[in-house]
Amino acid sequence: MKVFAYSCRPYDEKAAFETAAAALGIEFACTSAPPTLENAALAAGSQYLSITTTPVAGALMERFCDLGIRMISTRTIGFDHVNLVDAKRLGVQVSNVTYTPDAVADYTVMMMLMALRKVKRILQRADSNDFTLKGLLGGLLGSRTVGVIGTGRIGQAVIRDLQGFGCKIYAYDKYPRRDAGIDYLPLPELLRRCDLITLHAPLAPEDVHMIGRAQLALLPDGAVVVNTARGGLIDTAALIEALEAGKVGACALDVIEDEFDLYYYDRRADIVGNHALSILRDMPNAVVTPHMAFYTDQSVADMCRNSLLSCQWHDRGQENPYRIG
């Protein structure tokens, strides 16, 4: 079997892929370019693809099907960038991966602390030699009541870490884990009780804008919103309105709506055109990072190896825990 990887970064992923492929006995090739109709032929002779967050749907999906691709493995946890309807219609299997949840959990707690301690404002002032204190009074994480939305592996790791700070923690999940010792609440009740919420849910179609105007209105005044999951979970326009009105005191976002053609690309010479991102970056109480929470050495090794493993399991007809649908 042969796996072809698109968007393979030469400075970290390529070596991880080659090491894993050699250990697993898999033929491997790659390109640093994202998948397009123009370069789809690079995958000719391969039965499996490994991709990241570039959308694959429609004509591109059909082209890969014509080339004999049996499965597309996205080396990400989220898979909303792959059109599952097109894949099912064409008979192309789709899978995702897992990686150590500690990477995103660590980053999430860091983002909470940055928002609560007003680190963005502190750094901006320090860069201009303004070392005054006025307006920089922060809050303690341990004094917050935190609502964790989504209690998969990452959500559980965040809960574990927050317990060390002494936070009061509630959770919401469509499929509660009754064996995990977590205090679950219906989403509206969680929003009313929690002055900090953090999102760790997948972006299912029915969960687009899970947090919109109505939900933000339920939060206590001055609440903090953190999202290291998927941008589409939050109605960004509604969040900006809540920040401007003071309803939301601060936000920390590692993901944002309509990020697929932005993050991981060098856009320094371009007019980006994402108005919401521009507004948020200009706000002193909004921390925005470019989908970096996953990015550790261990995560990259996990993602590359597990993407190859998923392809190998499918090829051998073995049970594949990463298979979607």
Features:
325 residues; alpha/beta; Rossmann fold; 2 domains; 6-stranded mixed β-sheet; 6-stranded parallel β-sheet; 12 strands; 15% strand
Could you write a compact summary of the structure shown?
It is built from 11 helices and 12 strands. It is α/β, with parallel strands linked by helices and 325 residues long. It has 2 domains: 2-99 and 296-324, Rossmann fold; 102-288, Rossmann fold (3-Layer(aba) Sandwich).
What does this structure look like?
The chain has 325 residues and is of the alpha/beta class. It has helices spanning 13-24, 58-66, 84-90, 102-116, 119-127, 153-163, 187-193, 213-218, 236-245, 275-282, 297-316; strands at 2-5, 27-30, 48-51, 71-74, 93-95, 145-149, 168-172, 196-199, 223-227, 248-253, 286-288, 323-324. Strands 2-1-3-4-5-12 form a 6-stranded mixed β-sheet, with helices on both faces. Strands 7-6-8-9-10-11 form a 6-stranded parallel β-sheet, sandwiched between helices. Helix 3 links the parallel strand 4 and strand 5. The chain is globular. The model has no long low-confidence stretch (mean pLDDT 96).
